[in-house]
Amino acid sequence: MYRxxxxxxxLIKGSLQTIILKLLEENERMYGYEITxxxxxxxxxxxxxxxxxxxxxxxxxxxxxxxxxxxQQVDNRVRKYYSLTKDGQKEVxxxxxxxxxxxxxxxxxxxxxxxxxxx
Amino acid sequence: MYRxxxxxxxLIKGSLQTIILKLLEENERMYGYEITxxxxxxxxxxxxxxxxxxxxxxxxxxxxxxxxxxxQQVDNRVRKYYSLTKDGQKEVxxxxxxxxxxxxxxxxxxxxxxxxxxx
DNA sequence: TTATATACATAAGAAACTTGGGTATAAATT
DNA sequence: AATTTATACCCAAGTTTCTTATGTATATAA
Lengths: 119, 119
Hints:
15% strand, 3 strands
């Protein structure tokens, strides 16, 4: 690829791990590039996961035992599929409720009128 | 104070500046310690802004020209009051919509069922 | 044949935290 | 009387998590 030079996308900081884990909970197995594309399509191009952020994050989650990998050849190209371990499955719920509760608090700070939506 | 040894509180990452600016939009002027207490009470003790995060953030916002300060003596103790500059007032809206839109995208990634709430 | 898309990876630097100090006054506990 | 807690500011070292910039390789589109 070309180097994206994105400027629209900045703040993720801490939520990337949760995003990865959640997508893998819904999808059984995914490879790195697929994750970037999924996020892009879910946000209509607004959030772009850079490779420099994604791959280290995947490696870290694997090192922590939350993900396992299996490598597969597809059209002479190597794909590295990731899926949740048992520990990983537990972590998804933990990370999700942590993040959702944080977002809730954030709304209460930033918008005094805010009431929890359809979540 | 004692050193908090909190473990409940971790992820803020990038939203602190927005929190500061928004609180100052609502309050005309506040001092640092007051901001930590306000956040604590708005979140029922769940989010604690550490001093090590807050003061550098305030100094940075001041250096960027978004905040001005005035020092005041209260009961022999020094307080440093912060308020928004004109640039700061513009930045609040920008930072707020950036964060709200980010949270929206995050919800769409993490919860496919999610619909925008009462925001 | 050159650029774009797919697919992986690493490394340097920046940004934004945490953790642990330090200083000082006032009020509350023991 | 002495210690702790609360109020109020500050800084520095270290860590985590990004961005930005590379590098490698194959397949497809212009």
